[in-house]
Write a structure and sequence with these properties.
Elements lengths: L3 E7 L18 E9 L9 E10 L5 E11 L5 E6 L5 E5 L11 E8 L8 E2 L3 E2 L5 H4 L5 E3 L8 E5 L4 E5 L20 H28 L3 E3 L5 E7 L2 E4 L28 E2 L8 H4 L2 E2 L1 H5 L20 H10 L3 H8 L25 E5 L2 E5 L2 E9 L4 E8 L6 E6 L11
Parallel strand pairs: 10-12
Antiparallel strand pairs: 1-2, 2-5, 3-4, 3-7, 4-6, 7-8, 7-9, 11-12, 13-14, 14-15, 16-17, 18-19, 20-21, 21-22
Helix pairs in contact: 5-6
């Protein structure tokens, strides 16, 4: 069979594009070509197979659509068809699914004059320089500017799928149906915001006072435990019970279990359980608390820069809070999440947040939920020392002296 040339002309245009922009978008391309043999003579009344491909990205890119059809030239060697409309076969993709707004598109034509699906003849892929507007028009949202007047607003009409101009009337808007609407600035809302701002300012002022007086907002012990700081009348106190198992220089403190001693230092876990040490802290006997007896102001078990409060410093704390008769209520955590009811007069007005960690006495643990006992650095007799006690059934701060072998909580002061 003699070789022949396929010279073609094709145009990219919609099958029918009315003047109205919102008319239905066409999904086809008119294609026309003239088949000529090697002598340049038109091949009239000839059957052949044509394979048409649309490539994406480049001339060798992915084929996103491909169709095959049988064509017959007319008396002038010409033939025409509509790409995407009624092919014999669609072998790849769907013409309607081609994304004309995406990557560049290329057209490629293969043909077989033997009609045996032998695609040995091919035209080079040709870039589609511009996409016909008709193919991307269905991705466009239209704005109808007819009869627009000054001051009109554009409102989307889902039925016509257009933005249309109209006047806005406040009585046509239902406030509760507006999504992401701003909150109404009612007096109640303004009062609430003012209250939040006032509380925040108080918190900021409190933090600034702590920084000015105590130089820090938190303290970290040797074990890495972090404690908050609270201030009373120029005194800086830890807000939580101590829970370190080492002195500030790294020396370990021996865990006593249920052993007691008036001379050897021990720390204790209530009922020998570690479950709530982070919440209630640990208990210490007096030798472990002060480490070195005979001094009123001693660092003892406290972090560097802090010391175990003396009896006098506890007395000053009580006076600052209105006296020992009522200071207990200001020192205790309010409510019954830790304290057993009635937790008399507890309002934690000081922020000290005393918890009823209980105590160890004569080798027995007791008082969890009802008693908070805190060592002072002040000795009393040969085998006794002063401590302070809070009770769930009282709003007072009590001053007692008992055996140094007892296990009590420790708060540090600066």
């Amino acid at each position: 069979m003699s070789k022949f040339l396929l010279r073609f002309i094709f145009c990219l245009c919609a099958l029918w594009l009315p003047m109205h922009l919102w008319a239905q978008v066409p999904q086809a391309v008119n294609f026309q070509a003239v088949a000529r043999d090697t002598r340049g003579m038109s091949m009239a009344n000839t059957n052949m197979l044509v394979r048409f491909s649309i490539l994406e990205g480049s001339a060798s890119g992915e084929t996103v659509y491909q169709e095959i059809r049988t064509v017959t030239t007319n008396g002038f060697g010409s033939f025409a068809f509509q790409i995407g409309q009624m092919p014999d076969f669609v072998t790849i993709g769907s013409f309607n699914a081609v994304d004309w707004t995406g990557a560049p598109k290329y057209f490629k034509v293969d043909y077989d004059p033997t009609c045996k699906y032998n695609w040995s003849y091919s035209m080079n892929a040709t870039a589609l320089v511009s996409v016909p507007y008709a193919f991307v028009a269905d991705a466009v949202t239209y704005i109808d500017v007819a009869k627009v007047k000054d001051g009109d607003a554009l409102i989307y009409n889902a039925k016509s799928q257009k933005f249309e101009a109209m006047k806005m009337h406040i009585d046509s808007i239902e406030w509760n149906r507006i999504q992401h609407r701003p909150e109404v600035a009612t007096q109640a809302r303004l009062d609430s915001l003012a209250g939040q701002l006032e509380r925040r300012l108080v918190e900021v002022e409190h933090s600034l006072t702590l920084l000015r007086t105590c130089g820090t907002l938190t303290v970290t012990d040797y074990d890495g435990n972090v404690y908050n700081v609270v201030e009373f009348g120029g005194q800086c106190w830890l807000r939580e019970n101590l829970r370190t198992t080492h002195y500030a220089d790294g020396t370990p403190i021996v865990e006593g279990g249920s052993m007691t001693s008036e001379t050897e230092g021990y720390f204790y876990r209530y009922n020998q359980s570690a479950d709530d040490a982070n919440e209630y802290g640990l208990l210490y006997n007096w030798p472990a608390t002060v480490r070195e007896a005979g001094q009123e102001s001693v660092q003892g078990v406290c972090p560097a820069g802090w010391h175990v409060p003396s009896a006098a410093e506890w007395n000053l704390l009580g006076e600052t809070l209105g006296g020992a008769q009522t200071a207990g209520g200001a020192l205790k955590e309010s409510g019954s999440s830790h304290w057993v009811a009635p937790n008399t007069a507890a309002d934690n007005a000081s922020g000290f947040t005393a918890l009823p960690a209980g105590y160890l006495k004569n080798g027995q643990f007791a008082g969890r939920g009802t008693d908070a006992c805190f060592w002072t650095s002040s000795a009393d007799g040969a085998g006794t020392a002063f401590y302070r006690q809070l009770l769930s059934a009282s709003g007072s701060l009590y001053d007692f002296s008992y055996s140094r072998s007892c296990g009590h909580s420790v708060r540090c002061v600066k």
